[in-house]
């Protein structure tokens, strides 16, 4: 099971990055302890706290020639990670 799917790169999370807070899309079944270990292992930082939330999938409707096609996007889980003071994660580095 891959715990960290991808980092959240939104304006809101980018503003929190300056305070040592980072966001990730994680596996829906992952718990806070697994998320903390995965971030520490992947980026070599110390994590103070992890907050999680499950985002419900949006309803999608398309009007086609053959009628109305309805469905849902899948739900996903977000994790907001607070690092120890003075530590950073650089998503944009070339290395």
Automatic annotation (TrEMBL):
A molecular function annotated in GO for this UniProt entry is:
structural constituent of ribosome
Q: Does the keyword Cytoplasm apply?
A: no
Q: Which UniProt keywords apply?
A: Ribonucleoprotein, Ribosomal protein, RNA-binding, rRNA-binding
An example of a Gene Ontology BP annotation on this entry?
translation
Q: Per its UniProt record, what InterPro entries does this chain match?
A: Nucleotide-bd_a/b_plait_sf, Ribosomal_uL23-like, Ribosomal_uL23/eL15/eS24_sf
> Which Gene Ontology cellular component terms are annotated?
ribonucleoprotein complex; ribosome
Matches recorded under PANTHER family: 60S RIBOSOMAL PROTEIN L23A
Q: How does it assemble?
A: Part of the 50S ribosomal subunit. Contacts protein L29, and trigger factor when it is bound to the ribosome.
* Role this protein plays: One of the early assembly proteins it binds 23S rRNA. One of the proteins that surrounds the polypeptide exit tunnel on the outside of the ribosome. Forms the main docking site for trigger factor binding to the ribosome.
Name of protein: Large ribosomal subunit protein uL23
> Which species does the entry assign this protein to?
Thermoflexibacter ruber
């Amino acid at each position: 099971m891959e715990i960290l799917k991808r980092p959240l790169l939104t304006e809101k999370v980018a503003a929190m990055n300056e305070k040592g807070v980072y966001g990730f899309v994680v596996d829906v079944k992952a718990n806070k302890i697994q998320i903390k270990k995965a971030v520490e292992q992947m980026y070599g930082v110390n994590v103070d706290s992890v907050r999680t939330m499950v985002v419900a999938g949006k309803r999608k409707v398309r009007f086609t020639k053959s009628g109305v096609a309805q469905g849902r996007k899948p739900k996903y889980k977000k994790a907001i990670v607070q690092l120890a003071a003075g530590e950073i994660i650089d998503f944009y580095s070339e290395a």
